[in-house]
Amino acid sequence: MIQIDRNRVRTIIDREQQLFSKTHLKSKRMFEHARKSLIGGVPMNWMIEWPGSFPIFAKGGYGSRIIDVDGHTYVDFCLGDTGAMFGHSPKATVEAAVRQMRKGITMMLPTEDSVWVGEELTRRFGLPYWQVAMTATDANRFSLRMAREATGRRKILVFNGCYHGTVDETLVRLVDGQVVPREGAMPPPIEPELTTRIVEFNDLNSLEKALESHDVAAVLMEPVMTNCGIILPEEGYLEGVREITRATGTVWIIDETHTWCAGPGGYTAAHRLKPDMITVGKPIAGGIPAGAFGASQEIFDKTMRNMLAETTGVNGLGGTLTGNALALAAMRVTLQKVIIKKAYDRMIPLAERFNESIERVIQQTGVPWHSVRLGTRVEYRFGPKPPRNGAEAIAAKDPLLNKYVHLYDLNRGILLTPFHNMALMSPHSTRKDVNLHTAIFRDSIEQIIA
Ligand SMILES: Cc1ncc(COP(=O)(O)O)c(C=O)c1O
C-alpha cells in the first residue's frame, strides 16, 4: 500500500510557507496593520482559516477569479463558501442592486420585488409561505422559533457534524453518547442538554428513539451533510426521516444553504422531498446578505396566522434591515437570471469532470483517498471510503494533509474552501481551471508518496 511520507509533508509545508510570505508582502503588511484594530487582524474570524500564515487580502473578485493586493490572480473554487457560487458580482445582480440603491436601500416597506420573490421561492421549493431573513443563520434561527411556536415544544434535534450557522443550540457535538458544546465554540448561553438532542446521520433507529418522547419541536438538517465533508443519505433514509418526524409531530426543517448546489430547487426539489420548512441563504442575492425560510400551510396556520392577527411588532423573526429593498431587488434578479437551470447545466458537468479527474489521480497514484460530488460541489478526503456519518467524518480528518494541499494549491493560484477540500464550480469556471487543479493535485501527491 502506498504510504504518505509525513516528514516530507512537514518539510514542504515549511518551504511553501516561506514562499507564501515572500510572494505576498502587501497582504502581510496589511495583516500586521489590521491586527492593531481588528480582532485576529480580520473583519470576520473565518478569514484567518486560510492556509498561509496570514490571509491574502483581496483586491477584487470577478466571475471565478480573485485578484489579491499583491497582484496574484487565483482560480477561485471556494466562491465565498457558496455565497458567490454563481460567480463574484454577477452582472445582473450588480445592475439591479445599483438601480435599487438609487431608489432607496431600506424603507421598512415592502417593494414589488418581494411579491415576485415569494412566488418564485414557492415555485422552486414547493412550500407556500416565505419570509426573508438577512442570512442563512437567521433563517435557521427563525425557523426553529416558528417550529417551537407550532408545536409548543422547546427542544430541537440536529446531526453530529452539522453546521447551520451560529445558532446557539446547533453548535454541538455528540461525544460518548452525550450532547456537548462544539469544539472551539465559545460557551453556549444554555447547556446543550437542555436545548438539543443530537444523533448520527444515516441512523433511523437513533432518530426514532430521540423523538419518541414527543418533546422535540424540530429536526433541523441538511439533506446531504456538507459541513464535515459531503455525506450522502443512504437509500430510503430521508423518506424514513419524513415518516418519523410526521409520526411524532416534529417539524422537519431542511437547510438548503449548501445543498442548493444540487439544482435550482435544491436537493428538496431534485429528490421530491416534503419538508415542513426550508431555509436558504448565501447565494440567494448574489452575495448581498439575504436569506429566506419557507413554511407549510400547517406551520403557517399554527403560527403566523395568530401572530399576524395580534399584529405584534416583535415576534422574534427579523430585524430593522431584514427584507430591505436592496436585498429584495438583488434576490429577484438573482433568482430570475443567475440561479437558473442554464447555469447548473454548465456547472454540473464541470463538477463531474473535476470529480472524475481527482478519482483518476487517486487511482493512478494509489493514495487511499476518495472523492464525492453533490451537484456543483466536489470534495475529496484523506481516507479510502466515504463516511456514513459525522463521527466517521470527524475521525477521518487529517489536519496536516489538509494544510498541505491547501497551501500547495494557494501558492499555485488555486483557492479551495479553507475548512475542507471542497471545490465549487461557478458558471464562469472552465475546463482549463479544472485541468489546472488536476495537474497541481497530481503534483502535490507525487511530492509526498514514499
Ligand atoms: C448548511 C448551512 N446552513 C447555514 C449556514 C449559515 O450561513 P451564514 O453564515 O451565511 O449565515 C451555513 C454556513 O456555512 C451552512 O453551511
List keywords for this structure.
single chain, 450 residues, alpha/beta, seven-stranded mixed β-sheet, four-stranded mixed β-sheet, 16 helices, 16 strands, 41% helix, globular, binds pyridoxal-5'-phosphate
Summarize the structure in words.
It is a single chain. Helices cover 41% and strands 16% of the residues. The mean pLDDT is 96. It has helices spanning 6-23, 25-34, 91-103, 112-125, 136-151, 192-195, 204-211, 237-247, 266-270, 297-302, 304-309, 325-337, 341-365, 390-395, 399-410, 431-446, and strands at residues 58-62, 65-68, 73-76, 129-133, 155-159, 172-175, 178-181, 196-199, 216-221, 251-255, 277-280, 291-295, 370-374, 377-381, 414-415, 422-424. β2 (65-68) and β3 form a beta hairpin. α3 packs antiparallel against α12 and α4 (112-125) packs across α12 (325-337). It binds pyridoxal-5'-phosphate. Pyridoxal-5'-phosphate (PLP) binds at residues 81, 135-137, 140, 163-165, 222, 227, 255, 257-258, 281-282.
Detail the topology: elements first, then pairings.
Layout: H1 6-23, H2 25-34, E1 58-62, E2 65-68, E3 73-76, H3 91-103, H4 112-125, E4 129-133, H5 136-151, E5 155-159, E6 172-175, E7 178-181, H6 192-195, E8 196-199, H7 204-211, E9 216-221, H8 237-247, E10 251-255, H9 266-270, E11 277-280, E12 291-295, H10 297-302, H11 304-309, H12 325-337, H13 341-365, E13 370-374, E14 377-381, H14 390-395, H15 399-410, E15 414-415, E16 422-424, H16 431-446
Parallel strand pairs: 3-15, 5-8, 5-9, 9-10, 10-11
Antiparallel strand pairs: 1-2, 2-3, 4-12, 6-7, 11-12, 13-14, 14-16
Pyridoxal-5'-phosphate binds at residues 81, 135-137, 140, 163-165, 222, 227, 255, 257-258, 281-282.
